[in-house]
Design brief:
This protein is α+β, with helices and mostly antiparallel strands. An eight-stranded mixed beta sheet has the order 7-8-9-10-11-12-14-13. Strands 4-3-15 form a three-stranded antiparallel beta sheet, with no helix packed on it. Helix 4 crosses helix 8, helix 4 (139-217) packs antiparallel against helix 9 and helix 5 (224-236) packs antiparallel against helix 6 (243-255). Among the domains are: 4-137, no CATH class; 422-533, Cation-dependent Mannose-6-phosphate Receptor, Chain A. A hairpin with a 2-residue loop joins strand 7 (433-438) and strand 8 (441-446). It is built from ten helices and 15 strands.
Length: 553
């Protein structure tokens, strides 16, 4: 049976003066963190192995491994086969946790020498020197970190201001959209009224135009039987007849003397027929004049071509004679060239001038009267009322503005729902793009947008986590031939502005990585890493015991 006296004697024998009084008991506190020492000081027993075992408090650090997890022996190497750790206080430097296998192994791991209390090795106190060396080595990193932290604070302020502005914009858009909907409803009611009046005006104009057309076509003085004949003829042709067919039909009907009241003299020509007859006279004259002018122009063209051929022949003959006559060479002036034919005729004797080509203009083709009548009749089908046009334009302008603001509201709501990391630091960085040249390609990435390798898509940015962000990913890019969809993972490193994208690599086919120096990575977690040495303590689980605080007497 072990007791307090045995523990105290063993402690004195091994040079272990560090004991802490529990409730009625003493226990060796070596290798236990200060916070856990305070907890144990109020306890009489402790439990370990997930509560499966419970022991008296004095059995801590008794150099016997009672607990399977080794938590009862943080200050000895008795449980070195477990994940138990020894806590180095390291006053003046950074506290450190070591595997208990390093306790009393004759190697000084703790800068305060507390891990070698019974190995016979005297460890020098090096905590002050290590702190000085650490501060010297980390000075540049601290300088970079502090510059990045200052820039991050500015980015956080910009993000907070942008978030507040967009919240206000969201509220303003909602109010504006509601007002536009009410305005559009009123404008559409006005448009319906004006379009009703427009429709009535159009119908009245068409009635008037149709009556005028009927008068021009001579339909008003046709008998019922003659009108019925016209209608039946048009129905038989499917309602689609040419101008000449329509005139011929009307002429046949008017020439007939069929009437329900007996025989009557054939009707004379209708106004449109008289207009067509006059038009035909003018059109025949136009055709004759066109034929005359075209013939005259062709004759003059042939004359010019013939004159040009004669001129070329004369030049060739003169050149041949010069070659055959001795002594005739370059010193003999060539004969004066014949005048080049022009488009203007020589005026005849007496001073009278003839027409030139420029004066010979082919007459324009005149639109026939029946075609004019049909066109004017159809024109009134598109009659518009100024008030209706204005109402439609006003409603359309409101409708377009409403659609634009609704689209803007949807985009804004979608943006506000995304995560932007701690303090929404990424919010003001949306759509900011950065690029770098690597080899023959330009790599670019846009926060909350796309990443590209020149013109090739590497994916779209996945949402970041709400806490500290250490990397951003772009996924579902263009598919590689016989491979996966391209992707990019960007590791964020603390650094001041300007942002730098660098170190692009392709560790596996179509899977890309890169690094980025940016102030957004200069958070508290980064500060803790910079201001703490790399002791390797993260490789081990921290020491723990489960304490029963109720006194056992």
């Amino acid at each position: 049976m072990r007791g307090t006296a045995i523990v105290a004697a063993a402690g004195a024998l091994l040079g272990l003066p560090r004991t802490v009084a529990g409730i009625g008991k003493l226990f060796d506190a070596r290798g236990i963190s200060p916070s856990l020492q305070q907890t144990l000081a109020a306890a009489s027993t402790f439990s370990c192995d997930g509560g499966e075992n419970r022991f008296d408090i004095w059995r801590i650090n008794d150099n016997y491994c009672d607990c399977a997890d080794g938590s009862d022996e943080p200050g000895t190497s008795a449980c070195s086969h477990t994940a138990a750790v020894f806590h180095c206080a390291n006053a003046g430097f950074f506290a450190q946790d070591l595997p208990t296998s390093r306790v009393n192994d004759q190697i000084c791991d703790c800068c305060d020498g507390s891990d070698e209390y019974a190995s016979g090795v005297r460890c020098p106190a090096t905590c002050a020197e290590r702190m000085a060396a650490f501060q010297t080595e980390s000075a540049e990193a601290v300088k970079t970190m502090e510059a990045g932290e200052a820039d991050r604070k500015r980015i956080e302020a910009e993000s907070a201001a942008a978030w507040e502005r967009d919240q206000e914009k969201k509220a303003a858009l909602a109010a504006s959209i509601a007002a536009l909907k009410a305005q559009l409803e009123q404008q559409e009611a006005v448009t319906r009224r004006e379009e009703q009046l427009e429709s009535e005006e159009r119908a009245a104009l068409l009635r008037e135009d149709k009556r005028g057309a009927a008068q021009q076509l001579g339909l008003l003085n046709l008998s019922h039987e003659q009108l019925a004949l016209v209608i039946l003829e048009l129905v038989a042709k499917g309602g689609a007849v040419g101008h000449d067919e329509l005139l011929a039909l009307l002429q046949r009907v008017r020439a007939s003397n069929s009437s329900s009241e007996g025989e009557s003299a054939p009707l004379g020509k209708s106004p449109i027929e008289e207009l067509e007859d006059a038009f035909q006279v003018r059109d025949d004259e136009r055709k004759r004049e066109t034929e005359r002018i075209e013939g005259l122009l062709a004759e003059r063209r042939r004359a010019r071509e013939e004159a040009a051929r004669q001129l070329e022949a004369e030049k060739a003959a003169a050149a041949s004679e010069d070659e055959d006559v001795p002594g005739v060479g370059a010193d003999v002036a060539p004969p004066a060239p014949a005048p080049t034919p022009t488009t203007h005729a020589v005026p005849p004797a007496g001073g009278e001038e003839t027409e030139t080509d420029d004066d010979l203009k082919i007459p324009d083709v005149e639109e026939r009267p029946l075609a004019v009548l049909v066109r004017e009749l159809n024109a009134d089908k598109s009659h518009t009322r100024a008030e209706a046009v204005a109402a439609r334009e006003a409603a359309q302008a409101t409708r377009e503005k409403l659609q634009s603001e609704e689209s803007e509201e949807r985009k804004l709501n979608a943006a506000l729902q995304l995560p932007y990391g701690a303090d929404r630091v990424f919010y003001s960085l949306r759509d900011q793009c950065h690029e770098t040249q690597s080899g023959e390609y330009t790599y670019s990435m846009c926060f909350y947008g796309e990443a590209r390798q020149s013109t090739t898509r590497l994916g779209r940015m996945a949402p970041v986590l709400e806490g500290g962000v250490r990397e951003v990913e772009f996924t579902d890019g263009d598919k590689c031939w016989n491979g996966p969809h391209r992707s990019l993972k960007v590791t964020l490193e603390c650094g001041p502005l300007p942002v730098e994208l660098y170190a692009v690599d392709e560790p596996s086919m179509c899977v890309y990585t890169a690094k980025m120096r940016t102030p957004v990575a200069c958070d508290q977690a980064h500060r803790a890493r910079v201001l703490s040495p790399d002791t390797g303590a993260t490789l081990f689980k921290p020491h723990h015991v489960e304490v029963e605080v109720t006194a056992t007497l």
